[in-house]
Amino acid sequence: MTTKRQTLPEMHTDLFINGKWEKGSKGMRPVINPATGETLTEVSKGDKAAFERAIEAAKQAFPVWSGMELRERVKILHRAADLIEENADKLALIMTLEQGKPLAESKGEIQTNVDNLHWNAEEARRIYGETIPAPNNHKYEVRKQPVGVVGAITPWNFPSNMIVRKIGPALAAGCTVVLKPAGNTPLSAIAIFEIFEEAGLPAGVANLVMGSASEIGATFAESKDVRKLTFTGSTEVGHVLYEQSGKTLKKISLELGGHAPFIVFKDAPISETVEMLVKMKFRNNGQACTSPNRIFVEKEIKEAFTNELVAAVKKIKVGNGQDEGVVTGPLINDAARETIDAQIKDATEKGAEVLIGGGRLMEGEYADGFFYEPTVLDHVTRDMTIFYEETFGPVIPLLTFESEDQVIEMANDSDFGLASYVFTKDLRIAEKVSNALEYGLVAINNVAVSNSETPFGGMKFSGLGRENGKQGVEEFMETKFVNTGYFK
User: Fold this and answer.
1) Is 289 a catalytic residue?
2) What is the spatial distance between Cα 266 and Cα 134, in angstroms, rounded to a whole number?
3) How far apart are alpha carbons 167 and 177 in whole angstroms?
4) Catalytic status, residue 175
5) Cα 184 → chain centroid
């Protein structure tokens, strides 16, 4: 059923620097609806001078914001959270239009923003130092202080939450921010900054710039005034930013690629496990760094599990995110489809079998968007590209294992180490496997690896640092030791 579709609400399309909306000097960039191929609007692009002015504005605002009465800072963050909740329908519509995910999913992401801002507002009250026992006539203190100006670069797959997940703890810590959102999805960022402006955030505390990703990334990395860089995106870009940032020895957080193993032991309830797999895999159409990408099923239940999985995938409705009943929308662009085509072609040429899906959706309502069939691949092996390369799309590759040690070794055979999932009723197995997995996030008998209250981040090529939880705020703090001596 096709519902009446809404159009883009009236909103800004410019840069936001030092509390003012301004046109960029590098022209405009179109924002495309991936479900229809239509241009929604165009947004301003800034030049290097605009990026540097935004950094300077944040630098000047830092002593104002960090020196503000804590109660007032907390009040502004809570106000921003309340305004996001009040405008949830509008913000969700903007996200669905520019990114493609279903409206219900977009609304869930907006609610996560609300929770995240409220959490970080209160976490600002819990930035504790400590006093250490000292010799006579001395006092040893450990103080936590905000690092300073933060440069933030966010991706297109979660175009609203990735922004709040970085800016929320930074502001709570007392830092000021310059944000560069993804070029494909700048409207969600603009909408959030409209909220910040309405909430009363002082000028210069949060600044928004759009433009060349490589240029602003280099500007952030090489600026001595930017004391912290936080980035979510590809491992390749993360390597570049890490190298560039070495020149200024700044603090850096990198949330990079993932290639999550999803391990199903023979005692796991098949129906419940399949339900969680489908829910997590087709969230955002598989375009998530935590998406299950290698599904390891113990040999004894492989056939039954596969049959139930294929039946569940057949029920998935693909379409425009505004239409009723749609479970998964389009991919972000045609390049994403080309990558998936190449992975499936490589796999099938090497012996994999497509049980369902395996191709683009091109006819009728799908003709102008970037749609792909929900796909299940069986008989996947380690000589296939899909075993090692992250799949950012609706493809489930199935593998078989016969022992705990075998599946641990296979799951760890990856450069990535972000999310992982284990399903078993045996607590001994759960303990052994969760300890052995080289992943920053392990979910046992569930798929909830991202929460406002818990640390989020990976190992190996999945990055550095943590977001969310108290650890997320600590990423934006410096630790200072003060030794006070008293004259007699």
Assistant:
1) yes
2) 57
3) 7
4) no
5) 15
Block residue for tokens 């294929």: 310
Q: How many whole angstroms separate alpha carbon 285 and alpha carbon 467?
A: 23
The answer for residues whose C-beta is within 8 angstroms of residue 351's C-beta and 6 or more apart is 379, 381
pTM of the model: 0.96
- Decide: 260 and 420 in contact? Cβ < 8 Å: yes
387-439 residue pLDDT tens = 999 999 999 999 999 999 999 999 999 999 999 999 999 999 999 999 999 99
> Do residues 230 and 220 lie in contact, with contact meaning Cβ atoms separated by under 8 Å?
no
Catalytic residue among 56, 109, 255, 298: 255
Q: 103 near 96, Cβ under 8 Å?
A: yes
Catalytic residue among 289, 298, 308, 467: 289
Task: Give the C-alpha separation, 471 to 411, whole Å.
Answer: 27
